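Protein entry
_____________
===
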Amino acid sequence: MEYYIEVEGLNFGMASPDRHAEALAKAGFTSIKMRDRNTWYNDLSRKEHEQMKGPLYPRMVNLLGHENADKYIEIWRAMNAVINSMELRPGHLRAVKGVV
């Protein structure tokens, strides 16, 4: 995860879905629902990575240059590793606050 955060250039921390739900509850939200999207995004990001390394690579190089194209491919490789290990848990959170 540390490598992914570094290579992606992220400057914020991440938290588990449960921690996000707790924060929403503390902020006064109710009807908090979480949907785990790990399997869906794991499949999608792997396909994207394969496309980047394969048929999209020449276009990426044309638009971004070799260095940047290779950088994005490495970001996706690192991201796939943390999604697959479940360190990164993509999900959807939905909650209600106040009158809707």
